[in-house]
Design a protein that fits this description.
The structure is a single chain. A hairpin with an 8-residue loop joins strand 3 and strand 4. Strands 1-2-3-4 form a four-stranded antiparallel sheet. It has three helices and four strands. It starts with 9 loop residues before the first strand and ends in a 5-residue tail after the last strand. By secondary structure, it is of the alpha+beta class.
Amino acid sequence: MLLRHAREIPGRVALRGLRCSATQGDPPAATLLLVDVSIEIDLSAVAESDAYADVVDLSDLAESVRQAVAAQPRRLLETIAVHAAHGVLARYAAVQDVRLRVIKPEPAGLDAAEESVEVRLSRGTNG
């Protein structure tokens, strides 16, 4: 059965625990961050075509997030999260909404398993 994409099929695609190198903190130090990234896209075309051309390439998404996270030294996870989320919206026109969570395992001085920051940006409202 072929679906006609006259109607949008909203969907969410996610990568969890993406390992990213960063220079972060005060003073800046090399650190491993984990990033969860989730994008909202229309799945109507891919539902019909089953073609890679009709979706966001997840390898490319992973690489673009890694580049954004590593782009320059940052003190704060919040700054890293916002810049990486903006980068996703700028790179992929098909993405309507991005949710990005940056996780720092075993943060110094907090006696916690992780520190995390989440950001959500939508096209047209924050992009």
